[in-house]
Amino acid sequence: MTKRALGTCGLILAASFVVMPGFPQEAKDRVAPENANEARLNRLQPPSQVMDIIGAAPGMAIAEIGAGRGRYVVNLADRVGPTGKIYAEDIDEVALRHCAERCRRAGFNNVETILGGFTDPKLPDGKLDLIFVISSYHHFSDPVALMKNARPALKPTGRLAIAEWVRLPGGQGEETSPETMKSQMEEAGFVLEHIDKSLEDNRLYIYLFRPQPVDRPSALKGPGQGQTLQEMTTEVFPPGIASLGGHRFGVAFS
Ligand SMILES: C[S@@+](CC[C@H](N)C(=O)[O-])C[C@H]1O[C@@H](n2cnc3c(N)ncnc32)[C@H](O)[C@@H]1O
Fold first, then answer.
1. pLDDT in tens, 72-108
2. pTM for this entry
3. Among the four residues 44, 74, 84, 145, which has the most C-beta atoms within 10 Å?
4. 3-state secondary structure of 87
């Protein structure tokens, strides 16, 4: 065999041993709900649709505050992929241990659990593209202090997304009103950019915030500053487009 032919054979052999990055289990198995309650919640808060709305994308670093047993953590870990990173934060050590074991079983090696304090999520400084909260906001005893302490974890281009139950006329149950959400998060140092209402029939609003720049009060006059809630849902971005982390994502807003 000539030197050239040997070289070609070597290349083909080497290529056949290249391991493609990925996770060992089938996609549907590694993100599967663990019980009937998780399945019910996933129907009301469909993970792919919610992750499209919040702009979760491959390679991102995302923290979920109030991650619990990891119902959404597995979906986020799958979405960001092996080049991304998920920080699963909660104050419940038992739930976090369960979440870590669930991720290990599903083959996710891109998830780190963080045991936070009631008002300090202990997230890594300046590393995150996105902070995400789902089904947890109304459980926080002091959401203003908690989210104020979470803010330094965002990159300057990072965003906060909160998916929270809303009470519709005649309804009842756990919820936060859009007015309370906007004013509490303003107090915590965030500017409301948009409210996605495409899951309104399921009683779910998704709020997208950007962090106020630190120590630059004159820089606070960007989109969203001083606008009414009505304007938030229609005017900040053209229909169907949300901006997140310096990128623009096509999103179907209703
Ligand atoms: C209803 S569970 C939602 C869990 C998960 N996000 C989901 O949708 O499956 C609410 C979670 O919020 C957590 N939580 C309550 N107060 C918290 C706080 N101050 N900081 C972080 N997590 C908190 C609880 O421990 C619990 O795991």
1. 999 999 999 999 999 999 999 999 999 999 999 999 9
2. 0.81
3. 74
4. strand
Helix (H) or strand (E) run with residue 30 in it: helix 27-30
Of ligand 1's atoms, which has the minimum distance to the CA of residue 142? 19
136 alpha carbon – ligand 1 mean position (Å): 5
Protein residue closest via CA to atom 22 of ligand 1? 66
* Domain-located, residue 10: no
| Residue 171 covered by a domain | yes
Nearest Cα residue to atom 27 of ligand 1: 68
Give the atom of ligand 1 at the shortest distance from the alpha carbon of 95: 27
**How crowded is residue 104: how many other Cβ atoms within 10 Å of its Cβ?**
11
Interatomic CA distance for residues 96 and 118, integer angstroms: 15
Q: What is the tens place of the pLDDT at every residue in 215-236?
A: 545 444 455 554 556 555 533 3
> How many domains are contained in the chain?
1
CATH number assigned to the domain comprising residue 221:
3.40.50.150
What residue numbers bound the domain in which 129 lies? 28-250
